[in-house]
Structures are given as C-alpha cells and as structure tokens.
Design goal:
GO terms for molecular function: kynurenine-oxoglutarate transaminase activity; pyridoxal phosphate binding. By secondary structure, this protein is an alpha/beta fold. The protein has 2 domains: about 120 residues, Aspartate Aminotransferase, domain 1 (Alpha-Beta Complex); about 240 residues, Aspartate Aminotransferase, domain 2. About 40% of the residues lie in helices and about 15% in strands. The chain has a 7-stranded mixed sheet with strand order 2-8-7-6-5-3-4, with helices on both faces. Strands 9-12-11 form a 3-stranded antiparallel sheet. A two-stranded parallel ribbon has the order 1-10. The radius of gyration is 20 Å and the shape is globular. It starts with 11 loop residues before the first helix and ends with a helix. Bound molecules: 4'-deoxy-4'-aminopyridoxal-5'-phosphate and glutamine (GLN).
Length: about 375
C-alpha cells in the first residue's frame, strides 16, 4: 500500500509516555496535568449525565456553551464573536486545527509553519494536498523573524499556522508580533490558523493576545482553543474554533463529517462552569507557582535554560555538556534517571538537533521535586 503519510510514524507523545510507563519513570514528556480538575466541574459532568444529556448535541455545539464562550472571549479579549455563526465546539483543538486546515487548503497551496512546531500541523496540511513551508523561529528565545516570514510568502501561500503561547518553547507573542502579522495579512490576503490552546497559561503578568482581538486578523483567522488544557482535563478532548461566519461555515462542513458533534454532557457541564470567570482567570497564578518551583529547581542542575513565559513546558539545553543526540538522551533519562522528557528535534521538519529537551511542569509539587532530585544526577548519564 502506498502511504499518504510516508514520513510519519507514531507521535512522540505516545512513544515517550509508553517508555515512561514501561520504565516506571516520572512522566514529564507528554503534556498533561498530573492533578485532578476542580470537583465542581467533575460533579457537573456527573449531574448532566444522570439528567440524561447523553444524546447527540447540535453539530456546532450546544447554544449555551457557544454563548458563554463568546462572553469569555469578550471579557478576556475584548470582542464578542457571534455564537450562532462564528463559534463551533469540537472534539479537541487537534480536531479544530485539522478542520481549519482542511477548510482552507487546496491542492498545491503553501501553508507556512513556524518551527519547532506542534506535530499535528504537517500531516493536516499534507493530507489536504498542501505544501508546508517551514520558517525557523529565532534560536534562543523562539521569537518570530518577521522578515523571514514576509519573504516566504508567494502567490501560492494560502495560510500561516501560528501558536502562542508556544509549544514547546513557551514564547508568548507580543503586541508587535500581532501587528506584524496583521500587516502581512492585510498586504497579502493570506489566512491564519491560530493555535491558542495555552491561552490561559502565561506568566509574570504577560497577557495572552488572541489574534481574534485584532480587527484585521479577526476577519482572517481561525482561533483554535482547548478546554482540556484550560481545565486540566486533556482526556475529555473538547475544544473550539472561532472564525468569521463564512469560514466557520466551511469549517462546519468538515467538522460535521469528521466527528459530527462533541460529547454532550461535558458541553453542558462546561457551559455552567464557565459562568464564574474566576475559574479561568485564576489559572495563570496557579501555573506560575509550578513554573517558579520548577525553574528554581532546574537552576540547581547542570541544564541551561530561560524560564518559560507561557504554556506548561520548559525547554532546557545540554549543548554545553554533551553531544549526545536528544532522542538518545531522552531515552536514557527515562530508563536510567527515571524522568521522561521530549526531544525537541522531533518538532523540526529536518529533525535538527540543537541539544534541547522539553519538560512538562503541569504536575504536583511533590512529583516535580522528586523529578528535580533525579535530574541532579544528570552527570551519571552524560559521562
Ligand atoms: N496544539 C498544541 C500546541 C498542543 O500542545 C496541543 C496538545 N494538547 C494541541 C494543540 C491539541 O489540543 P487538544 O488536546 O485539545 O486536541
Ligand atoms: N499537546 C501535548 C504535548 O505537547 C500532547 C498531546 C498529545 O499527546 N497528542 O505534549
């Protein structure tokens, strides 16, 4: 059989989490919280399941969840998308990204991807007959080189995929980044697929600026979000897409044949849960404590790093310590030090290895402390 995705293997998240389980290691590889969600939210799901909200929801999501999400968007980003025509509830941001890419990409279209990039972008583009065009983020802080992006745009460019707060680097877009993109979009007419799954996880008072908040970008952007990330329930696979009416229409044509609709009782539970803004407004502080604890601990190890400014990931470099391939280091750390991580080379199209690995710090304090303890033994595997 001729594969449609010959270069794609099993995603690194599945590979590393299995390795962590087999080795009985602390799993700081795949990004998922190691603690429970708010019991109020869990009780709401139980309530709605028992009340019988267990059949198909409307294809675009229940009206109550779309409306409260629009209100949250107004509160946090200053604009109110039309819940009827511009907000769609989907089965996770992965689905949102896939449907958005499918909605815009035609055979031979180029789609710009800034790398290191989340691993679902490329297969979505390729499966839709598009051609990914890779632009590296600046080494060091992983900011965007807008000159490079601008010169990569040709008459074939259909869209650009962006991600802030960024996985894996934690870089959070500034107002200047947003304005630069708006200027490009205005000049060239390209579309934007904006992955904002870490919208509520930023540090040191840095705001998350949704592309939907910019009047020019709002008309051209699919904003993709994930309730799984925001409320520590990644296994629920529920997210959303906010896009202008005409693009939402195209998006829904695809969503209705990928999954049709999304898990009903959880939509009802989230609609009620979102009524209290403090439940999402408190998330930056909650994660800041973990970021601070983890970076303080890391500063006592041999790794070099700059504290993450967003997402629940921390990159660290070992370039000054060893020439070992990052995949080898990740494997040896998992099996010998019993701490699993993600090698960053997997997020590059050419698998370039800058000797950087990623840790997820969305874990209980005790687990982070134990992991840090083990990481202080790093020299054992580098010798
Ligand atoms: N984009 C990024 C950058 C991610 O880290 C993830 C991980 N969950 C996703 C999208 C997918 O989100 P979901 O689990 O809601 O599908
Ligand atoms: N987004 C998560 C990460 O970057 C993983 C999600 C998944 O396993 N698909 O680790």
């Amino acid at each position: 059989m001729v594969s449609k995705l010959p270069h794609i293997g099993t995603t690194i998240f599945t590979v590393m989490s299995k390795m962590a389980t087999d080795a009985e290691a602390i799993n700081l590889s795949q990004g998922f919280p190691g603690f429970k969600s708010d019991p109020i939210l869990l009780d709401l799901v139980a309530k709605f399941t028992k009340e019988g909200m267990n059949q198909y929801s409307p294809m675009q999501g229940i009206p109550g969840l779309r409306k409260i999400l629009a209100e949250k968007t107004k509160l946090t980003q200053g604009y109110f998308p039309d819940p009827e025509t511009e907000v769609t509830i989907v089965s996770g941001a992965t689905e949102a990204l896939f449907c958005a890419v499918s909605a815009v990409t035609r055979l031979g279209d180029e789609v710009i991807v800034l790398e290191p990039a989340y691993d679902s972008y490329e297969p979505a583009i390729t499966l839709n007959g598009g051609i990914p065009v890779y632009i590296p983020l600046n080494s060091g802080d992983f900011s965007v080189d807008w000159g490079k992006v601008s010169s990569a745009i040709t008459y074939k460019t259909r869209a650009i995929m962006v991600n802030s707060p960024h996985n894996p680097s934690g870089y959070v877009w500034t107002e200047n980044d947003v304005n630069q993109l708006a200027e490009l979009v205005e000049r060239t007419g390209i579309l934007v697929i904006s992955d904002e799954v870490y919208e509520h996880i930023t540090f040191d008072g840095k705001p998350h600026i949704s592309l939907g908040s910019h009047p020019v970008l709002r008309e051209k952007t699919f904003v993709c979000g994930s309730f799984g990330k925001t409320f520590h329930v990644t296994g629920w696979k529920i997210g959303y897409c906010i896009a202008p009416k005409t693009w939402s229409l195209e998006f829904r044509k695809i969503h209705q044949y990928v999954t049709f609709s999304t898990v009903t009782p959880i939509q009802f539970a989230l609609a009620e849960y979102l009524e209290v803004p403090e439940r999402y407004l408190s998330i930056p502080d909650f994660y800041q404590k973990k970021r601070d604890l983890f970076s303080l601990g890391l500063s006592k190890t041999e790794f070099e790093f700059t504290p993450s400014t967003g997402s629940f990931f921390q990159l660290v470099s070992y370039r000054h310590l060893s020439t070992m391939a990052d995949r080898t280091l990740a494997e040896r750390m998992t099996k010998e030090l019993k701490v699993a991580c993600i090698p960053i080379s997997v997020f590059y199209s050419d698998k370039r290895d800058d000797k950087i690995i990623r840790f997820c710090f969305a874990k209980e304090e005790s687990e982070l402390n134990e992991a840090l303890n083990r990481l202080s033994e790093l020299h054992r595997i580098l010798e």
